[in-house]
Amino acid sequence: MFTSPDGMFKFFVFITDLVVNNALQSEDSGVESLDFSYIDQFSKLILTVVKYSEKEESVFETILAATLIVFTKNHEYHRLNFNQRPFFKLYYNLIYEIQRNQ
User: Which of 17, 19, 28, 74 is the most exposed place for a label (fewest CB within 10 A)?
Assistant: First the structure.
């Protein structure tokens, strides 16, 4: 699916940034709560990629590293106005689905 680990890392950094920004922009549009639909689908994508990969642990570690890069970037950029809820939802979904499938 991915030709190199670096390509996969860049892909998941880009997609993580995209879905987090989408969730945060839903709050700016006047809605009281964030729209987590993209986060939910992204977490399913992550688990599907991990499930069908040859090296599950390595792939999952690369994806988590990519999400952590975006988390750190957003925290550094927004400082006082940092909203951790999209990341919490993403990590919660991953933990829940992994635990449920065991």
Answer: 28
Q: Which residue has the tokens 């400082």?
A: 79
pLDDT band at 101 (very low <50, low <70, confident <90, very high): confident
pLDDT, position 30: 67
Q: 16-66 pLDDT, tens per residue?
A: 999 999 998 887 666 678 889 999 999 999 999 999 998 889 999 999 999
The total domain count for the chain is: 1
CA distance 33 to 13: 24
Structural domain boundaries enclosing 69: 5-101
Place of tokens 């860049």: 10
